[in-house]
Amino acid sequence: MHDRTRLLLLVLLVISILVNYIDRGALSIAVPQMETDFDLTPYQKGMLLSAFFWTYALMQLPAGWLVDRLDVKWVYAAGYLIWTIATALTGLVTGFTVLITARLLLGIGESVAYPAISRLVVENYPEEQRGLVNSLIDAGSKIGPAFSILVGGLIVDSVGWRPLFITLGLGGIIWLIPWIIWIPNRDKQHSNDVSSTDQFPRIETVRPKWAEVLAHRSVWGTSLGMFALGYVWYFLLTWLPSYLIEIHHFDLKQTAILAALPFLAMAVTTVLAGWVSDRLIIAGHTPTRVRKGISLSGFVFAAVLMIAASLANSGAACVSLLVATCCALGMFTANVWAMTQTLSGAAAGSWTGIQNCVGNMGGVISPLVAGWSVGQTGSYQTAFYVAAIVMLVGSVGYGLLVGPIEPVVWKSTQSLSCNASPEAIHLREFDRKGSE
Q1: 57, 233, 253, 269: which one has the fewest Cβ atoms less than 10 Å from its Cβ?
Q2: What's the chain's Rg over C-alpha atoms?
Q3: Of 218-227, 325-334, 410-419, which gets the smallest average pLDDT?
Q4: Residues contacting residue 320 through CB under 8 Å, at least 6 positions apart
Q5: What is the rounded distance in angstroms from the CA atom of residue 210 to the CA atom of residue 213?
Q6: Is the dihedral of CA 332, 337, 342, 344 positive or negative?
Q7: Residue 104: how many CA atoms within 13 Å on its side-chain side?
Q8: 378's torsion region: left (phi>0), alpha (psi -120 to 50) or beta?
Q9: What is the reported pLDDT for 423?
């Protein structure tokens, strides 16, 4: 893939994640009106906010399998189409059960995104670029919720929640046009790589077995870290607007602005931390020290700041501390995918699928825990404390279980490589030399 196509690919991936998070995050700003329309209890509201993650988490495993074996371009396009249709359908539902069904369909479509993106990043960008590449993609996941809360809140306040979902779903389909026209198929892409002077190697075509990937300690370390991130991230994404309205008594327009600020701040921090990480690695520091050090420091800072935010008496102080919390989280998100991509290599799709499946179990659990605790206590305090504890546990687990940030040598690919034809060995040697 040529440099110009790589740039276009990065732009489209950032936009797709932006749309992804706008679509999934729009519900949080619409829930206060839905609560009235459907007469929801706190537990039902928690179930509604959690439903997306049931299918989103479980479908990560088949999604990872698919992107490792089929043309990732078309797998991603299919998932994207499903989730935009589900978003539009959300605006047409007439009952709570159908609304839950639309959220489940949204989760199925969006489950393809991160396994596909990891595969594309491993295939097309070298280690020293992945911090910035991943942080730009991650920034889309932070700007998306900010946009859906800010603009979505103003739309919901003016015309109601249904037009918001219909507009987002139908408008989002436009992205598929440049994706289908300009992004090469995998076979075409590989053909271009071999015949050009491009210096980035093709991804190893021999895939490690699922059992081998599942048995690797670092897979579970990165998955535990993602569970912790998923827990706190989706707690904020789903409950923050309701928290600011109910506890600090902001109106919907104020909430639309204030609830967007932490996510925008996180987008800035993640890009900055990703860029700094890449610069440090280019300067000679190891990916292990740089990416692990920055990520885990951010996690610990975020846990402390989240507890402080929950204890703040004024709305302004609370929002300021939540902005600082999300800035610290950005230090983790800037590097977490780069670490997984470097570790996984030929298992990029499968490893990402496992990691995102476990990680998004946090998205399943945290809205339900928050809904239950608010219903039982009438306070959000317990929900904030639990989120902070989960982050601390996740940082310790990540630090202890994840090994050095360098490619894992998979036994199954080693044995197959030993039996490879002379032509295949020559081609892999060509790729290796081109990457040095």
Answers
A1: 253
A2: 21
A3: 410-419
A4: none
A5: 5
A6: positive
A7: 8
A8: left
A9: 37
Cα 104 from Cα 51, distance rounded (Å): 6
The span from the CA of 262 to the CA of 182, in Å, is 34
Cα 129 from Cα 176, distance rounded (Å): 26
Token readout for 265 is 């701040």
Q: Taking a C-beta distance cutoff of 8 angstroms, is the pair 247, 432 a contact?
A: no
> Helices marked H in 312-380 — which ranges?
315-344, 348-377
E-strand ranges in 55-102 read none
**List of domains in the chain:** 3-188+203-411 (1.20.1250.20)
Query: Closest Cα partner for 70 from 119, 20, 138?
Result: 119
pLDDT tens digit sequence for 158-183: 999 999 999 999 999 999 999 999 99
> Token pair of 138, please?
């991650």
Per-residue tokens: 320 = 């300021």
Look up residue 199 and give its DSSP letter: -
